[in-house]
Design goal:
alpha+beta; 2 domains; OB fold (Dihydrolipoamide Acetyltransferase, E2P); globular; 33% strand
Amino acid sequence: MTSPAARVSQELLTVTIQKRFSGERESSFLLDVEFVAAKGFTILFGASGAGKTTLLDCIAGLQSPESGKIAIGDFVLFDPAARVNVPPNRRSVGYLLQSLALFPHMTVQENVQYGLAALDEGERESRCRVILESFRIADLARRRPGEISGGERQRVALARTLVTRPRVLLLDEPLTALDAVTRSQILDDLRAWNHAHGIPILYVTHQRAEVFALGERVIVLDAGRIIARGSPHEVLQRPESETVAQLAGFENIFDCSFVAAHPEQGTMTCRVANSTLDLEVPLSRVDTSQPLRVGIRAGDILLASLPPQGLSARNVFPGVISSLEQRDVTVVAKVNCGAEFEVHLTPAARDSLQLQVGGKIWLVVKTYSCQVMQTVDSGGIKILIFTGDPTPKSCCGITCVRACLRQLWGSPAGASCTKPPA
């Protein structure tokens, strides 16, 4: 006989919904998403107002979309065409919010057992004991929420959500208020629990570090639509759009134009708009007649107090420090090199270089620290061009980029590369 854990581990959460807001301020907002989540963590990443919480509310049954379908395996939760809209308490969906909503007058044990009223006392006691041990709070069973720490309250809230054995778990930034160590410990316990139960977990976060630590998959939402999906490395390390680049921590994003290609060197030159500054970036699949954007993380830029020599980095610019600001343990420097760059460094590095506002400095950027992005309008449809790969092997090189784009995205008959492969 198949165990419940083995059964749920095969179930997929399938979501296709459209939800429009009718309020005066949000009349133009439409949540329109389609995705499938397998067992394990799927991270929902995006700025505030992107639609992440609304999406979770629709899956939980707290809001109803106008159209679409939501299902866990063969269990349909929402399908207006079939007149199906399962009430929240019958969806087998666990939902944990930032507020936790623990009952202050109940003990930890009573809070955890609250959703098990339909079970006999022996089963309630057994389930409660196992889940409290799983989250290392068995010794707190007789205490009330006001008598335990914030991290312990988070564990209690998770235990109460999971003791009902949901088939899907929704987490809306429940660990935001915790310190990094406590958050990491709780997530380790949650990973261990899910290793045995294997359910889909949708985890909303704004923290880039959490995306890499947790996510097998990440979905990026912007203005109610999915604009990127894939592994954390695919989505955040090599972003294809400016929105994702900003979310992923590319503090420097420059409007640029194509200047020249250097296929034999694997690079190309782009000029920063309204300047004479040229950046050497990886050779990329772009339409050279269209504007580009280049993103650079502030932490990927080096500073030198003297002209650097003997470096592999291809971008070395003299500049002047326009501002210095310390934010916690990070120093944020703004450097004007004809275009203004934001640079992050440690207080120790600042002191060693004796940086001062108005001081001269040299800025160093590796070619592969530059991420090229481009949006092409094809028949009225905006297409994000993935620029991380080199020109296709079937092409003669950068001189035929525009023909290659026509081949990639579809074109009238006869559009092709004008030279045979080398």
